[in-house]
Write a structure and sequence with these properties.
single chain; Hydantoin permease; two-stranded antiparallel ribbon; 15 helices; 6 strands; 67% helix
Length: 487
Amino acid sequence: MVDMIVDGTKYDQQTFNISLDMHQQGDSKCFDDDGRPKRTGTVWTASAHIITAVIGSGVLSLAWAIAQLGWIAGPAAMAIFSVITCFTSLLLTDCYRTGDPLTGKRNYTYMDAIRSNFGGSSFKVKMCGLVQYINLFGIAIGYTIAASISMMAIERSNCFHKSGGKDPCHMNSNIYMISFGIVEIIFSQIPGFDQLWWLSLVAAVMSFTYSTIGLGLGIGKVIENRRVGGSLTGISAGTVTQTNKVWRTMQALGDIAFAYSYSYVLIEIQDTVKSPPSASKTMKKASFISVAVTTFFYMLCGCFGYAAFGDSSPGNLLTGFGFYNPYWLLDIANAAIVIHLVGSYQVFCQPLFAFVEKNVARRFPDSDFVNKQIEISVPGFHPYKLNLFRLVWRTVYVVLSTVISMLLPFFNDIGGLLGAFGFWPLTVYFPVEMYIIQKRIPKWSSKWIGLQTLSIACLLVTIGAGAGSIAGIIIDLKRYKPFKTNY
């Protein structure tokens, strides 16, 4: 009997035919228009996924970013990035189906959308895959670093409280990164995006929790100081060298771009949304709601953080120890950050997990190690289907990202570099180009010129932000010892 491989799962021919017949006979209760299990996502689950992806640790570096840019350019840059992200996300939602927006071929991943629009083996497809998956791996590294810093912050705030601020409370980050990695190994065994909705909801609640605490502490500090800190142009060239001022300004733009990153998982999120109404309509509404809510929180947290600390704003508002008290509130905020990052890590890693597993299943269709599902009984729940390849590959992935995090524990610089590296190609260039192809926009028309101008402008920002972040990493490396970084 011939076996069929669908989405990395092996079916015998009889089972596959029965499923196909059920769908063809109109059993819409179980299957979608392509014969796959019916999607159940809503505008609220999609919004939760997006907020989990967007309101990440990047919010904590926004006060520092505004400090480099000042009261005029800082908020303006955040507003511009939010508008660009929302606009290009709306373009990207129209690329979920190729051809007819209601009945055209579904693209299940960002890479599928690229492949449908540019051809399966084109240079653009390969470049997109390289950039997307390197960026997703980089985000896993960045989130591991951020989570370890927050875990250390809990211990350090308690240490400061006990010593009255006399003990510097230095500690090594390695044990915290390893602890986070162990937790991610467990959660990485969640098979796919559609089973992550509950983790995304928890993570979204946590993101609002620590953002609200950071905002409240910033407002309290402004009231305590009885003045608004900062300046119109940001940190002055006298405080840092003129060269460092330029690098920091560029890096700040990268940090803001990183804080808005989610386009490269948008198609994967959209593929969880039920239809009707069309997935495109639901996703546009979810994108608009999510970016609006995110920008509101970003503006409040970044601006009040800068107002509280001015040019001395720390790179991480809750762990850079701009705040020491109340220590118990800081502990709650940092615990919320860690829980949120557990969920965010999974949201960003699932596309890469799925990509590798589908390709390996396609290459080794007869391998039980790759395709066999072992059912494990879980009291009170449905049996868990363990796949040995998934267990080994995802564990290796988490271990590798954890080890690299221990080698390069530079939160601000890594965040800026990731933001710069992924912003233009994945958030702007590919959505714009695919939209032009989908809508058949004539070359040199006013709409085409406007879209290309936006793309070129964002490319220049990406180049500058990348250069600034690399300069920051080089400066950090001068005083760095592998596996011995202390805070």
